[in-house]
Specification:
Largest sheet: 5 strands, mixed
Strand content: 15-25%
Structural class: alpha/beta
Order of helices and strands: EEEHHEHEHHEHHEEHEHEHEHEEEHEEHH
Shape: globular
Strand order of the largest sheet: 7-6-5-8-9
Helix content: 25-40%
Amino acid sequence: MTTTVIPAADGAVESAARADGAAFPVLPGAARVLGVSARDEETAARACVRLAERLERDASLAVDDVAVTLAHGRERFAVRHAVTGTGRAELAAALRRSAALARPRRGSGPLVLDLGDGRAPAGAWRLPQVAAALEEAAALGLPPGAGADAARSAAALYGVGAWLAERGLRPDLVRGDGPAAGAAAAALDGSLALPDALRAAASGGFAGSAGGGATARTVRPGVVVRIGVPSGTAASTAAISTAAVPPAALSAADGSADGGTSALLAAAAGPVGGGFAPAVASVASVLGRTEPEDTAAGESAELWLDPARPGSYAELFARLWELGADVDCSLGAQGRRVRLPGYPFRRGGPAAAPPEGLRALTPHEQRWLFHDLVRSGSAAEHVLCATAVLPGPAPSRADAETALAALLERHPALRTVFTRHTGRWFARTSREPVPVTVLAAGEPAGRVRAAAVEESFAAADTPLVRCALAPADGPDGSWAVALAVYAPVAGDASADALLAEWAGLAGPTV
């Protein structure tokens, strides 16, 4: 049993005990999301009906188990349905309604995460990632004042973005206006470490940020996700105070109610920026209760997340799923995988030939991908990695990348990239250069290995080989290097052999 201190609506502090595993926003009684997909509209509709029938007749079926199974145990296709609800009967009825609607094939366009003007949304501290970031802000020991307030606001916004990232939201651009939002955007896109970003927010070092140095209007998004509530909605966004709630970083300024409409879809959002007053469609259309408009790549949609309201997370992720984003619709629920009705696939003729530049997966690749992309959500479990600590000067970044390019030419399979097209997985050969990660001088071999492997080593649309190194800390020191490769593309070569070959191409001898 865990006890969480939360501010009540009147500003007083109350204690709420929760069972282990019940974490915001997937609290008892809060909305859940069920996401269904298939390769065509008819199959998707039939899958919704079959799932509704199972929910209606099986009283032992837990909604969290269904959500987790759909999110982590099923392949993802281009025709999608998503419904929200708090119980089996409500979700079953929503699935039947959704099955009756046309669901065109979705293609997810560029996605932008907009942190707004830097005000920390009320209630954001309930997310564990926000609480952790606020503790980092408190650890900086900043004197009370506007700078400390900006650092706390940046921490809260960063924490919300970190929670979204853990749930599979991978924006092409992160932006924000003002020091707090700009610093949070820089931390989220990796431009700054979080402590450095919080210090920059406190010093007013950011007038604004559009991740990675891009300007706010260089990307016309397919989807914009804004943190906060639209103008005119009955919810508050207040700066975080350190006075009332332990730990010192948590806020007592949380008077928002579970009301309002925060996941609102604009009929046609313009380029990123321009404040918090969008033209919005009805909540019914946002939740898929009316005939949805097709959102092709390049068409804009605007969604909102009110971090204080649990239902807002479900609404947002349901809409993102329907728009083609491969987000985790379980919202972090602590369910288990259960047997659910299978896809009612139609028998047909032979599969169409892959598009130019793509090839069908081999049975070997299919097995690996199903496990890593569907079962576990990451390829990290099947990454081979070799690490070496070598004497003498390390190669420059340019020399290291030249050696890696030569290694890929010798082993063309290492250039394999897995990608999805019209709901099916294919392989292609990428000619894009693979960068080498260069860490600070003197970093230990363990940190270098971690940089090469990365916990979230993805197998979709990304290079499947990585290299990282840390130069020596001084003229007489040693330097460390690591090479990681996804097992299905390594063939018969071991990671140790590939690293030794790279080292020979870069100059030194292992």
